[in-house]
TrEMBL record, chains A, B:
GO cellular component: peroxisome
Protein name as catalogued: 2-oxo-4-hydroxy-4-carboxy-5-ureidoimidazoline decarboxylase
Family: Belongs to the OHCU decarboxylase family.
GO BP term, pick one: AMP catabolic process
Species annotation: Saimiri boliviensis boliviensis
Gene Ontology MF terms in the entry: 2-oxo-4-hydroxy-4-carboxy-5-ureidoimidazoline decarboxylase activity
Protein keywords: Decarboxylase, Lyase, Peroxisome, Purine metabolism
EC id: 4.1.1.97
Annotated NCBIfam families: UHCUDC
Catalytic activity: 5-hydroxy-2-oxo-4-ureido-2,5-dihydro-1H-imidazole-5-carboxylate + H(+) = (S)-allantoin + CO2
Pathway: Purine metabolism; urate degradation; (S)-allantoin from urate: step 3/3
Subcellular localization(s) per the UniProt record: Peroxisome
Length: 171, 171
């Protein structure tokens, strides 16, 4: 899909296509439509990120809370969004012990920060996930909020690049 | 459900219960959770409305764009959210002529304002809908944005009152 096609979309089409660029937050895509026309993928991405950055802290935390636990209940129950399911591919072969360990760490993380642990899993290998979770669990809350929003942006950038069939390495 | 029960919810439960208070915008409920504890239903509602009011204009337009057309495609195809389906009850018996007229007016409205026509249908009778749509189609865009957000708040207030089993007339 090229950028002319994107710029020709009415808001209904745009939200249908880009509504889950930020997980379960079609409001953000629907807001970004106000900024059309877009120059290119990078420009489109810039508007998604600018909207996230301009939200009050509660809204940024709200974005994080719309994400599933990594390798958590939604993966087990098959209730992940299509995008998230693809991103979980590397985590489907975890053993019961690893899943239990992750569930414990996810619960500690949620209790400490008030949002779920988010990691751009496609950019990480399976073994690194519990290690990274344990590391970030010890970070100060304000720093961890910034880190988590950075992961949301990495995930959104990859999803946008997928939709426009671009090479994400170029971003 | 009483307010103590609401205040005891973790963010996952809270988003499960209140995620569609604003149509297809779980981000807003997820953000409002940051403001707990809530004094009562009125206080909870106040935080939903404050979040909406604090958004940039593109975000407010984004909320509106997450709503379905009134008596439109989602009603015909059975793809309304559960809450919206209940609110559409009074509109299910519209005749083909009335549906066609509404579809034309909805399309004109979307083209003029860049968001769909929104009306708290439970507070309106069936005959009033096309009349009100035709009237609002002529309003200046800035005024119509305010009117539409006012309707979103009426709908959200009714949904919150339903969830807390309160009498919406008291709000």
């Amino acid at each position: 899909m090229d950028i002319e096609k994107v710029n020709s979309m009415d808001f209904g089409e745009f939200v249908d296509v880009f509504g889950n660029v930020v997980e379960k937050c079609p409001l953000i895509a629907a807001a970004v439509w106000s900024q059309r026309p877009f120059l290119d993928l990078e420009d489109l991405q810039k508007h998604f990120f600018a909207f996230i950055d301009a939200l009050p802290q509660s809204g940024q935390e709200g974005i994080l809370r719309c994400h599933p636990d990594l390798a958590g209940r939604d993966l087990q129950q098959g209730t992940l969004t299509a995008e998230s399911q693809r991103e979980h591919r590397g985590l489907t072969s975890l053993g019961a012990d690893e899943l239990l360990r992750l569930a414990e760490l996810n619960a500690q993380y949620r209790a400490r920060f008030g949002f779920p642990f988010i990691l751009a899993a496609r950019l990480s290998d399976r073994a690194a996930v519990p290690r990274e979770l344990a590391r970030r669990l010890l970070c100060p809350p304000a720093q961890e909020l910034r880190t988590a929003l950075g992961e949301v942006k990495k995930i959104s950038g990859l999803r946008l690049a997928d939709l426009l069939c671009a090479n994400p390495a170029k971003l």
